[in-house]
Amino acid sequence: MNGLARALAILLIPIAGVGACKPVEEAAPAPIRPVLYTVAKPVDAVVFGPFAGFIEPRYKSEIGFQIAGRVIARDVTIGDVVKKGQRIAALDPVVTRFGLTRAEADLADAQAQAEYAAATEARRRKLLAGGNVTQAQLDSAVASRDTAQARLVQAQANLQKARDQMGYTELRADFDGVVTVRSAEVGQVLSAGAAVVTLARPEEREAVVDIPEDLVGAMPKDGVFTVALQSAPGITVTGRVREIVPFADQMTRTRRIRLTLVEPSEAFRLGTTVTVSLSRPVKPAVSLPATAVVQADGRDSVWLVSVAGDSVARRPVTIEGRRDDRVSVTEGLAAGDRVVVAGASSLTEGQAVRISDRPL
Question: Global pTM?
Answer without folding.
Answer: 0.57
